[in-house]
Amino acid sequence: MDSLNALVLILNFIVVPAAAYGAQLALGALGVTLIYGILRFSNFAHGDTMAFGTGVTILVTWGLQALGVSLGPLPTALLALPIGILVTVLVVLATDRVVYRFYRRQRAKPVIVVIASVGVMFVMYALTRFIIGTDDRVFADGARFLITAADFKAWTGLAEGLAVKATSALTIAVAVAAVAFLFWFLNRTRTGKSMRAYADNEDLALLSGIDPEKVVRVTWIIATTLAVIAGVLYGLDKSFRPFNYFALLLPIFAAAVVGGLGNPLGAIAGGFLIAFSETAFTYAFKKFVSYLAPGGWEPEGLIQLLSTEYKFAVSFTILIIVLLFRPTGIFRGKSV
Amino acid sequence: MTYRARAALLFGIVAVLFLVEAFVFGTWNTALGIVNMALISAIMALGVNMQWGYAGLFNVGVVGFVALGGLAPALISMPPQTEAFLAGGWRIPLAIGVGVLSILAAIVANGRLAGRPRVLAIAAILIAGFAIYRTIFDPAVAIVETMNPAYAGHIGGLGIDSIFGWHGGVLLSWPIGALMAAAAAWVIGKTALGLRSDYLAIATLGIGEIIIAVMKNEDWLARGVKNLTNIPQPVPYEIDLQQSAYWRGWAEAFGTDPVTFSTIFVKLCWMVFFVAVLLALIWLSERALNSPWGRMMRAIRDNETAAEAMGKDVTRRHLQIFIIGSAVCGLAGAMMVTMLGQITPSSYTPLRFTFLVWVMVIVGGSGNNWGAVLGAFLLYYLYIKVEDWGPDAMKWLTESMQPGPIRDHLTDMASHARMLALGIILLLVLRFSPRGLLPER
Question: Which residue, A146, B63, B130, B330, shows the most beta carbons closer than 10 Å to its own?
Answer without folding.
Answer: B330
